[in-house]
Amino acid sequence: MSDSIPHPALSGRRVLIPGGTGGVGEGAVRSYLAAGAQVVVPTRSKERAEEFRPLPGEAATARLHLFEHDYTDFAGAEALVATMVDRLGGVDDVVAPIGGWW
Predict the structure, then answer these.
(1) 77 phi, psi to nearest 5 deg
(2) What are φ and ψ of residue 39, in 5° steps?
(3) pTM for this prediction
(4) Sign of dihedral through CA atoms 28, 29, 35, 38?
(5) What's residue 101's pLDDT?
(6) What percentage of the chain reaches a pLDDT higher than 90?
(7) pLDDT of residue 92
(8) For position 61, what pLDDT does the model report?
(9) CA nearest to 43, candidates 3, 83, 89, 91
């Protein structure tokens, strides 16, 4: 069995992963970064963003975008999309990791 998993070429894709700092979401973030995507992970606090930033590794940090946003209501979700459009030019994909390790 191979140690490396092939990833589709996603270079240039702008992927939003709400919940990306959680246990399940972190795996999705790592996979999309490995495939070359620009990955946006919203966090509700600057502290959590700072804790999470080094986890995917130095090679991916240029494509990892941590935005502090509360996206739990429509206004917050619209503001998050507006931030992505402003900073990255749009949103191509949204991945919603669900579940947990408990």
Answers:
(1) -65, -40
(2) -115, 125
(3) 0.83
(4) positive
(5) 55
(6) 40
(7) 95
(8) 74
(9) 83
